[in-house]
């Protein structure tokens, strides 16, 4: 059996090596249209910054090693331009035809380069391979460029912005959407956007670059900003030119349609990687969820089935993680925006909690947002902080994949020692708070939903911190009733207004809530995320 794999990236290489382990006798050929093979493209921003010092560090196995270790043929600069499905032959640009018994299309995704006047100038780059990364670095270091414009506030755009900033550049990000990192919700990215601004990154949101001039960019057709060089990071789209010409079925989101064995509509042709559509476990919709982790799972599934095994690709939930100037932002499952767009009923809470016991030095504040169904099914989670985020999001991601409930979060056992967590971990607390909301034991309001024009008339905002903290800064129109004095001031709290409680991070207000509800107040609510998140959102809106 001869198996040909088109594409020398993560999906293609993983398919080839896994297939070899399952079938020692198959002839395996990998065709790569460029002269680069087995490149860790996710590491390109880290080469720009200098965290990765040598480009060769981003290279995996060489074609020679693939032949020697795995007996896999790798042919570089072999671009497949058409597939003759009837005769099982591949048409190679400028080369001889390649026959196959089984074919795997692992062509990945293409970097989008918007059609903007002037975008082909010598000082405008895309970050897509080793050569492009070197060109960007050489241009910046060799020309004395200082002002760098990044088009796109996705993962690559934000990582490129930090990388260029670390080299001393003055960096501006122009993002067409309402906020950066579209996998996250705007209330969470408010924190990240403020963090970027504090580090000196300029942000232009809801902004399109409509023209490039020699050293100026036109924003939204009117505002001009200076730049010395620009990096295009406006996203990717699946590379499906080849399957389209071969009449391979393409789905609604633009990726190749495959079944759970990773087969296309041709039983002898498989596809895997960033060019395919896959089922989302939470939404029931097929979509493109890119990432090396998913690509490797798809590759193993395809390889197993080619080798004669019965392997199935499970539906996925979608995860992402990114470092941003010492902070980590991570998510799993659906965002609130996705749930709204699909009209999926949900509830939400925010939680601030220290990464470990506060009496152990180095404890950092973490912020989480949990989304869940009225029946208690976990739908999504987002987390931001300097420490403790990856392990919590990883754990909750596993729970979501397994269909866990809020009760599972409450009862899951987290290893405890003061340097690592609190005795009641953030995962447990998120489950507890969410369950209380569903049981209507606790009620929340959200900053974006409050009609602040009613402050004082129909709404009473109570700050439950001590007097000194209140005087150092508080939300406008709030009155101060410290938690310790609350029981002695019940008569000053009206029962005919909506009473909203807050403190710095939520713990004091939470305790105040129980005092008031136990005393018969049925008009009390907690401000989700309390004052700290409110301030972040307000500061972001003012910027």
Description:
Helix content is 28%, strand content 24%. The chain is of the alpha/beta class and 543 residues long. The strands form eight sheets. Strands 3-2-1-7-18 form a five-stranded parallel β-sheet. Strands 9-16-10-11-12 form a five-stranded parallel β-sheet. A five-stranded antiparallel β-sheet has the order 21-22-25-24-23, sandwiched between helices. Helix 1 (10-22) links the parallel strand 1 (2-6) and strand 2. Helix 6 (186-198) crosses helix 15. The protein is globular.
- What is the global morphology? globular
Number of helices: 15
Sheet/helix structural class: alpha/beta
Side-by-side strand order of the widest sheet: 3-2-1-7-18
The value of Rg in angstroms is: 27 Å
The overall strand count is: 30
The portion of residues assigned to helices is 25-40%
> Are there runs of 5+ residues with pLDDT below 50, and where?
none
Query: First CA to last CA: what distance?
Result: 61 Å
């Amino acid at each position: 059996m001869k198996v040909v794999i088109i594409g020398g990236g993560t999906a293609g290489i993983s398919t080839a090596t896994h297939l070899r382990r399952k079938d020692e006798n198959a002839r395996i050929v990998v065709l790569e249209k460029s002269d680069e093979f087995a490149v860790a493209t996710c590491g390109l921003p880290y080469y720009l910054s200098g965290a990765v010092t040598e480009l060769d560090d981003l290279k995996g196995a060489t074609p020679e090693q693939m032949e020697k270790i795995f007996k896999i043929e790798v042919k570089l600069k072999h671009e497949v331009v058409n597939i003759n499905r009837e005769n099982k032959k591949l048409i190679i640009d400028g080369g001889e035809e390649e026959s196959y018994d089984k074919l795997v299309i692992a062509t990945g995704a293409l970097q989008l380069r918007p059609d903007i006047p002037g975008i082909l100038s010598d000082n405008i780059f895309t970050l897509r391979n080793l050569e492009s990364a070197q060109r960007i670095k050489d241009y910046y270091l060799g020309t004395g460029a200082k002002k760098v414009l990044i088009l796109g506030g996705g993962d690559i755009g934000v990582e490129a912005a930090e990388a260029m900033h670390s080299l001393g550049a003055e960096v501006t990000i122009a993002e067409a959407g309402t906020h950066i990192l579209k996998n996250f919700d705007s209330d969470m990215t408010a924190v990240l956007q403020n963090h970027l601004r504090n580090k000196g990154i300029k942000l232009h949101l809801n902004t399109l670059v409509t023209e490039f001039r020699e050293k100026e960019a036109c924003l939204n057709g009117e505002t001009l900003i200076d730049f010395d060089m620009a990096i295009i990071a406006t996203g990717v789209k699946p590379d499906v030119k080849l399957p389209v010409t071969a009449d391979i079925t393409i789905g609604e989101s633009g990726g190749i349609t495959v079944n759970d064995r990773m087969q296309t509509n041709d039983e002898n042709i498989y596809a895997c990687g960033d060019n395919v559509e896959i089922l989302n476990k939470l939404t029931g919709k097929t979509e493109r969820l890119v990432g090396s982790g998913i690509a490797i799972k798809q590759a193993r599934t395809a390889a197993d089935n080619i080798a004669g095994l019965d392997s199935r690709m499970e539906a996925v939930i979608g995860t992402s993680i990114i470092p941003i100037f010492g902070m980590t932002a991570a998510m799993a499952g659906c965002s609130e925006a996705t749930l709204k767009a699909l009209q999926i009923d949900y509830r939400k809470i925010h939680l601030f909690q220290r990464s470990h016991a506060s009496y152990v030095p180095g404890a950092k504040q973490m912020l989480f947002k949990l989304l869940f169904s009225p029946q208690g099914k976990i739908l999504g989670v987002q987390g931001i902080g300097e420490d403790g985020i990856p392990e919590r999001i990883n754990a909750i991601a596993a729970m979501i994949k397994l269909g866990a409930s809020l009760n599972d979060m409450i009862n899951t056992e987290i290893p405890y020692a003061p340097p690592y967590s609190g005795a009641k971990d953030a995962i447990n607390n998120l489950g507890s708070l969410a369950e209380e909301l569903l049981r209507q034991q606790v009620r929340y309001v959200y900053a974006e939903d409050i009609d602040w024009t009613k402050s004082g008339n129909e709404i009473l905002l109570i700050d439950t911190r001590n007097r000194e903290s209140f005087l150092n800064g508080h939300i406008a129109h709030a009155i101060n009733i410290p938690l310790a004095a609350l029981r002695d001031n019940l008569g000053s709290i009206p029962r005919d207004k909506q009473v909203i409680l807050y403190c710095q991070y939520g713990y004091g207000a939470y305790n105040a809530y129980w005092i008031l509800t136990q005393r018969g107040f049925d008009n009390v609510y907690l401000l989700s995320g309390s004052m700290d998140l409110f301030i972040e959102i307000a500061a972001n809106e003012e910027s």
